[in-house]
Amino acid sequence: MRLAFAIIAALLAIAGDAHTGGTHAGRVPLPAMKAERGESCVAPAEEMRRNHMKMLFHQRDETVHEGIRTKRFSLKQCVDCHASRKTGSVLGEKGFCASCHAYAAVKIDCFECHTPMRSTQAAGAPR
Amino acid sequence: MARIEYREIEGRSAGFFGLLGVLALFIAAGLAAAWAMEHRGHVITGMTNRIVWGAPHVFAVFLIIAASGALNVASVASVFGRELYKPLARLSGLVAVALLAGGLSVLVLDLGRPERLIVAMTHYNFKSIFAWNIFLYTGFFAVVTLYLWTMFERRMNGYTPRAGLLAFLWRLVLTTGTGSIFGFLVAREPYNSALLAPLFVVMSFSFGTAAFVLVLMAACRWSGRPLGDALLARLGTLLGIFVAAVMYFVTVHHLTNLYIAREFDLERFLLWEGGVYTALFWIGQVLVGGVVPLALIFAVRTRAALAGAAACVIAGGFAQVAVIIIGGQAYPQDIFPGKEVSSSFFDGVVASYAPSLPEIALGAGGVALAAALVVLGLKLLPFLPSSLDQAEPAEA
Amino acid sequence: MTPERRRFLGWGAAAAAGAAAVTTLAPGLRLVELARARSPDEAASALQRWGLLIDTAKCSDCDACVSACREENGWTGHDRPATDAQWIRKVSLRDRRSGFAQTLPLMCQHCEHPPCVDVCPTGASFRRADGIVLVDKHICIGCRYCVMACPFGARSFVHEPTTGQKPDVPRGKGTVESCTLCVQRVDRGERPACVEACNRDGHGAMAFGDLNNAAGDLGRRLRSEPSSALRADLKLNPGVRYQSL
Fold first, then answer.
1. Which domain holds residue B200?
2. Is there a contact between C136 and A66 if contact means CB atoms under 8 Å apart?
3. What is the topology classification, in CATH, of domain C50-243?
4. Does a structural domain hold residue A124?
5. Is the pLDDT of residue A92 over 60?
6. Which of B389, C20, C130, C178 has the fewest CB atoms within 10 Å, i.e. the most exposed one?
7. Mean pLDDT, chain B, integer
8. Which chains touch C (3 or more CB pairs under 8 A)?
9. Tell me, what's the pLDDT at A123?
10. Are B68 and B139 in contact (CB under 8 A)?
11. What does the alpha-carbon distance between residue C37 and residue B344 come to, in Å, rounded to a whole number?
12. Do the interacting molecules here have an ipTM over 0.90?
């Protein structure tokens, strides 16, 4: 249910973006979307924008219930690459997750349990 | 027997809106409490890691078992064919649905993650009696609604006895399920008994009838409809029998425990040195919830006495549910038999618990919601007969 | 590794479980290594059953295990002992008749038949294939029925908003949590933090291992030395065993 809402909201956000040509966003500031580490993400940006939540959902069940801890689609790895260099977090006004989710008006509760901070021993970008 | 004429209450008086206004205030306070609990966490309640179910659960469980019991009057009419109670059947269904809605609201809003209620509808663990209860509760709404429809829709009247039987069986299973939430807890001595299921069933008979009697008396008085003495006397006798039945089950439960050496310490706690829980048991549950109402019903036998008895049964019922739920958790779990135990987690000591204002507000909000649903139901649909003053039918 | 290949290897490992300890499953992959550290894409397997053996005779008044757990899993509290989480605690015992005093660490017993898993309405409380009992906090609704059901008081409800979680140990308000047997460490092939600390400090009261592996340290000790389960009357077959109790 929540997933469905998230997808619909994300699609609406993308559709809205296409509509306005992505040049201006009215009252809401455009999200600060940039990778802080590594060359490229685990999939093209278009694919990530639409489907990152599916990847995370899938990985989440595998990790929690089966102990599969591949780094590629893990939330921890997302945070490690995308956390701001300044704050070390994906939340906050210019945070990678927070700014885009504020823009798309999709509430996430990942970080009520997961830390939004980059882990110190984090390595480079995932393969 | 003459056809019964049902009519909505007028619902324009200052008293009507005043009542709804007061109830709305309580509901708003309950919602505010739930909001605060969700945002600041359960730390603002009196609940702890030792008393994980507190005042909200006392309110919720009381309302839920009273809900199934409130359907008794309808069952007596439809299933057991007592004509005298037939005019009350619609109101009985309304009170049942309203009480269940109030109780479930409290239960749900007390969850740690109430916004995830949808998860409870999409992920099921069928070994959990709690998961079964989700079906039993939602099913109860559906079954009672169906039952009410057969009563309201004249073409469906012929099916009323069958719908009534279904509702009666469903409510028995529902209360068995609620009792089993506690009865299936193998690791806690105060629970862990098959007796809890039938105990909850008779408790529901008693609390539900008491709630129904109060609603009926208030509704008739405030809407100026006559209410016959014969009917009230019958309801009083019914309530008296249920109160006695509850006392019987409670006695058997404690006698069983007193016979078993392993349970001596538990009984000493509950009956003798349990402080507030012992007081709640003897003064609340036994005296106010048992002895006083029996005396009022069978010795005094007036209209005011019946109202007083019903109020006492409800007060005693809250005490009884509190003793079961909170007293049962306060008593320490015996992980190391024969050892004195101490730890940072309060092992081996009686857990302390003091309900906080938000919990009480949430519980009271549930009661107010149930009452408001009854008031609105009475105004919107013809649940209440225009007169309940009749001679006793010969068959009864 | 493709899922098909993984499944094939899983079946192969199951078939080989009873056989010799060093069985070649595929070139360069042997059962011994499989039992030590799984590769990250390998699912936890029922071939193992992780457990603890705690010798109370060697357990002294220290709380190294508790602080190590707190450090590893980040369950720092708010100085409110009644509502703060406690994944592991030291319990002091005193025999009512003889007065004999003991102390021991108590945590989730990782039962084979866990009452918390039975009662959970959503299935958030679950037992992993390798015997570790966990809470899937994504689907925990915070009803606390599992806390009611646990015979050991091993579970805590998170009463307050949390910050500063460890990256591998998410925990948040409104859900229930308990000892995970340091699942994040076990998945890396390491021992739980409490066991590590107990042995580092030279007490050696706690041992971690695979209960299914008769040839392993834990299996050998369980076969040759007396041990007991807490609340053995409930027949839950816990994965945590005690000695000298």
1. 8-334+343-385
2. no
3. Alpha-Beta Plaits (3.30.70)
4. no
5. yes
6. C20
7. 94
8. A, B
9. 41
10. no
11. 35
12. yes
